[in-house]
Amino acid sequence: MQDFLGAQVGGVPVDQILIALGTAVVATFGLRFAFGLALRRFRTLARRTENDIDDLVVELLEKTRLLFIGLIALWAAARPLDLPAEAETVLRGVLVIGLHLQAGFWGMGVINYLITRWKRQQLEEDPGVATAVGVVGFMSRMGLWAVLGLTALGTLGVEVSPFVASLGIGGVAVALALQNVLGDLFASMSIVFDKPFVIGDFVSVDDLSGTVEYVGLKTTRVRSLSGEQLVFSNSDLLGSRVRNYGRMRERRVAFAIGVTYGTPAAVLRAIPGYVREAVEALDNTRFDRSHLKGFGDSSIDFETVYYMSVPDYTAFMDTQEQINLALYERFEDEGIDFAFPTRTVHVVGSGADGEVGVAVSEGSPTSADASPPGADASPPGE
């Protein structure tokens, strides 16, 4: 044993190496215990206060890795040793890599803290910030690790300039190979800053419609009315005509009704007034017009237009239902008949050879549809 302890490794006695390793292990667990104690106390403090700075401290302590603590302890324990130049270089390189990795973890904690705070403050005012948070977070994390990687290489003595130049050339090749992916990425950034729609908007793309649920770096996901999730490529989505019903300030509603032929002219003149009364009696409506539009095959047609100050589709359907019921009751009181497709049969009569001529006409029955005297007339509607 004495011979083993007196031996040397790289010019350094074995007993000194073992003492340094033991010191490093003890220091590692001691520092780890101190970090754990500080973490528990800061967690308790964070629950009692409304200030979110202590939340940031808690997150940074949680992201402090045991490997980083061990490297610091090992470096401190090895300082008194007269290590060979090669061992010093290796130890220094490991320490530099460990420091940069830990700096990356701390930087990620700061980015997460800032993004969470921004999202919590702005999400209620602007739902589109959720998309911006995703893009900004991704770019910030990628930039952080890129800077730390280049800094670590420079600290280790690696010439960074040729490496950066090669990255530029390689970046062009990668950009050509991934042009579709990069197109979607830049399209997502365009959605973030231009905001043609935000999460929660009801949109229609071609013949597909739904509510925007998520806007990612490559795709946008929409929940359709029938329940399935629709996935759109960001670049394809921006290249399409998107109808955003979430930006609708008011809803224009046009509907038609038809009454039977034979309705008196005075009643026809009064019908637009009846419609106006039914529309203006309801909240959130603005009457625009109601006119006798034309003469159809089976009806005299009226067209009405009004506006809903509330763009919600359910509110529109509730309002239209009340208008329909009010018109039905008013027409019932006034003796006005709604038109429906009909067929009228005219029996002309029997000729000298005993044949009976029949003339069939489409349309609503009128006073002129009466059968000739003595002939059997079919009831209206057959």
Structure description:
- The protein has helices at residues 2-6, 14-48, 53-62, 66-78, 85-122, 129-155, 160-177, 179-194, 234-238, 265-280, 313-334, and strands at residues 8-9, 12-13, 202-205, 208-215, 219-224, 229-233, 242-244, 251-259, 285-295, 300-308, 343-350, 356-362.
- It is an alpha+beta fold and 382 residues long.
- It folds into 4 domains: 2-181, no CATH class; 194-246, SH3 type barrels (Roll); 251-334, Alpha-Beta Plaits (2-Layer Sandwich); 342-382, no CATH class.
- A 5-stranded antiparallel beta sheet has the order 6-5-4-3-7. A 3-stranded antiparallel beta sheet has the order 8-10-9, with helices on one face. It has a two-stranded antiparallel ribbon with strand order 1-2.
- A hairpin with a 3-residue loop joins β4 (208-215) and β5.
- α2 packs antiparallel against α3 (53-62), α2 (14-48) packs across α4 (66-78) and α5 packs antiparallel against α6.
- It is elongated and about 130 Å long.
- Mean pLDDT is 76; it is low at 364-382.
Q: Characteristics of this structure?
A:
three-stranded antiparallel beta sheet, 54% helix, MscS_channel_TM-2, alpha+beta, Alpha-Beta Plaits, transmembrane, five-stranded antiparallel beta sheet, 4 domains, SH3 type barrels, membrane, single chain, 382 residues, 11 helices, Mechanosensitive ion channel family protein, elongated, MscS_channel_C_sf
Topology:
Elements: H1 2-6, E1 8-9, E2 12-13, H2 14-48, H3 53-62, H4 66-78, H5 85-122, H6 129-155, H7 160-177, H8 179-194, E3 202-205, E4 208-215, E5 219-224, E6 229-233, H9 234-238, E7 242-244, E8 251-259, H10 265-280, E9 285-295, E10 300-308, H11 313-334, E11 343-350, E12 356-362
